[in-house]
């Protein structure tokens, strides 16, 4: 930590601050500048009281306290300069090849899921999405098929060879969900449910961490740190839009997170234009933008009959539109230097 002292403080006041730093278990290093003095304090905040209260304890002497290092460590690029790649049934996410994960918002039945699975595979997707446990805003809305839905995903995996991504809602289900999926999705509403993140990390499966509805990027990176610090190196960040004052779209898809996450972290960045826009007619343009800006993968909601979907009907694209989208993305993928 760096402690900035107020200008022109007395030696006595300075010594009082240094004594307090030592008392709290840190080693102070005094650096005197022309206008002011700063103190570098070395120690471990995990096992010691934080120094962040110094300005309120010594209002006459301490101006501010700043961390030297970024608060996230393992997710940062400094910790791991090269890109991390996540292996999903032999397909790497975060490597040269651009990856598309697609499928319905919710698993509604075997026919709906298998029809979608075959169609998205034929169009070039490598991972099938589908929620079996759904985090619905209202308890009176479809909550997902649960274990029955997981078994349908497993059947689709065996029939098509696609990888599976599905959401984990509860720590109690971690082992069960892990058995049927290749990637565990942590939804926007749970992105700071730290015990759930730890439970997901401990399954050993890759974890896709959605950005929370009103989550700052630093909070998102720190939530990712919970996965990596629990011995799971396979983390994917997924931007799915944040809540703003805008009502034209369901959320505001923040594509600035692509270059920011790429700069700050080695973990892949995935874009979900479906929750982001909330409108099927915007999905294509959002996908093109995401590819051009350097995203590693897309997570797209696709339904054989969006008008009859049990959840998120307005934002799911039809099988035909998805096939067209995959064709139209090709020059963007090439232009971004991906395959
Ligand atoms: C979903 O992917 O269907 C979903 C519920 O996502 P989010 O958590 O981003 O709202
Ligand atoms: Mn959805």
In the CATH scheme, the class of the largest domain would be: Alpha Beta
What is the mean predicted local confidence, pLDDT? 96
Shape: elongated
H/E element sequence: EHEEHEEEEHEHEHEHEHEHEHHEH
Question: What distinguishing features does this structure have?
Answer:
eight-stranded parallel β-barrel; 18% strand; 339 residues; TIM Barrel; Alpha-Beta Plaits; elongated; alpha/beta; single chain; four-stranded antiparallel beta sheet; binds phosphoenolpyruvate; 2 domains; binds manganese (II) ion
What can you tell me about this protein's structure?
The protein has 339 residues and is an alpha/beta fold. It has two domains: 65 residues, Alpha-Beta Plaits (2-Layer Sandwich), CATH 3.30.70; 250 residues, Aldolase class I (TIM Barrel, Alpha-Beta Barrel), CATH 3.20.20. The protein is 34% helix and 18% strand. The strands form three sheets. The protein has an eight-stranded parallel barrel, surrounded by seven helices. Strands 2-3-1-4 form a four-stranded antiparallel β-sheet. Strands 5-6 form a two-stranded antiparallel ribbon. The chain is elongated, with a radius of gyration of 24 Å. Bound molecules: phosphoenolpyruvate and manganese (II) ion.
